[in-house]
Amino acid sequence: MQITQLNLSDEIIDLGVGQPDPSLLPLAVLSQAAKHRLTQPDASLLQYGMEQGNEYFRRSLAQFLSDGYGVPVDPDRLFITTGATSGLDLVCARFTNPGDTVFVEEPTYFLALRLFADRRLNVVGLPIDENGLVAEALEEKLAEIRPAFLYTVPTFHNPSGVTLSASRREHLVRLSEQHGFYVVADEVYHMLAYTAVPPPPMVSYDASGTVISLGSFSKILAPGLRLGWIQTAPDPIRRMTRSGLLLSGGGMNPFTSTIVQSAVELGLQREHLKRLIGIYRQRASDLEAALNEMLSASTTYIPPGGGFFYWLRLPQDLDTAALRDTAKRKGVNFQPGVNFSAGGELHNFMRLSFVYYDSDRLREGVRRLAAVIS
């Protein structure tokens, strides 16, 4: 019986999986946190929650984020969600109408494209390079269209792994102020830094309330918690808290947020994140070594400084979507580049992840992939 979203065959090494290794899921951490919280004489955690999110949890989260980001975070500027995806969907519901245009990076997170399609939004892709979104391309497009928002993954980008430079972050926010659109920054990988220290989160550059930052415990604690946050200015928070969804059902995931509050306050989240970074850093290094040894003649990539992914460019005449069926027959899988394209392009790219498998399986996966490509 399948009880999780993922159902992998032991015969296939699926390097396309962007989920954590099940052995890294912190059952003991959350058991300790739940015991701590449920022994408190306070039954309010079982009640409908405050629309913006439990204030005590937001204070604890703000301190945790302040330490992790290296810049102060105001708890009054945090809004609790059931993960980054629900936060993005709520932003679409409250800040767009069907037929509106949103800008994305090319490539971009493929499931965000699915969500925008569900909301019947027009999507326009903009190019990136080794320093993230190309600001000049954004300026050119703004001369033609004013989007409802720009969706960006600025730090350890999904799928390319690149990080938006500090100067471009500032430039992008200034453009949003001048042209009247929001910047929706998906920053779920920001704390997963291995070899590079990223610039401060996008909200740090915001003086006018145009940045809406998405965060999640899915990447740093456990995805099954379905718990995340939005960091933004008071006006966007007011617009979100007035949604019918929240007026009817109260704040999102109030019970789980109190468990995670204990994990944060007891230092368990910090220790678990430190452990994850150590393991992921080694796996990223081992995957890169295998790529350099077995695929350097046929692929190029920009080494990511953190996050989950490597983004491989193959020869122009290779179509990775067509290659996938052969790869599966040879016992390996990946995410083809076209999935990440707003315009149906990027046919000779693929995304690989290093977080689900240990180093031996990663190496074997690359060996199989090299055999398929050759």
What is the structure about, briefly put?
By secondary structure, this protein is an alpha/beta fold. The chain is built from 12 helices and 13 strands.
How is the topology of this model organized?
Blueprint: E1 13-14, H1 27-38, H2 55-69, E2 78-81, H3 84-95, E3 101-106, H4 110-118, E4 122-129, E5 132-133, H5 135-142, E6 149-152, H6 166-179, E7 182-186, E8 211-216, E9 228-231, H7 234-241, H8 244-249, H9 254-265, H10 268-294, E10 309-313, H11 320-329, E11 332-333, E12 335-336, E13 349-353, H12 359-373
Parallel strand pairs: 1-11, 3-4, 3-6, 6-7, 7-8
Antiparallel strand pairs: 2-9, 4-5, 8-9, 10-13, 12-13
Your description of this structure?
By secondary structure, this protein is of the alpha/beta class. The protein folds into two domains: 13-25 and 270-373, Aspartate Aminotransferase, domain 1 (Alpha-Beta Complex); 27-268, 3-Layer(aba) Sandwich (Aspartate Aminotransferase, domain 2), CATH 3.40.640. 40% of the residues lie in helices and 15% in strands. It has helices at 27-38, 55-69, 84-95, 110-118, 135-142, 166-179, 234-241, 244-249, 254-265, 268-294, 320-329, 359-373; strands at residues 13-14, 78-81, 101-106, 122-129, 132-133, 149-152, 182-186, 211-216, 228-231, 309-313, 332-333, 335-336, 349-353. The chain has an eight-stranded mixed β-sheet with strand order 2-9-8-7-6-3-4-5, sandwiched between helices. The chain has a three-stranded antiparallel β-sheet with strand order 10-13-12. Strand 6, helix 6 (166-179) and strand 7 (182-186) form a beta-alpha-beta unit. Helix 2 packs across helix 9 (254-265). It starts with 12 loop residues before the first strand and ends with a helix.
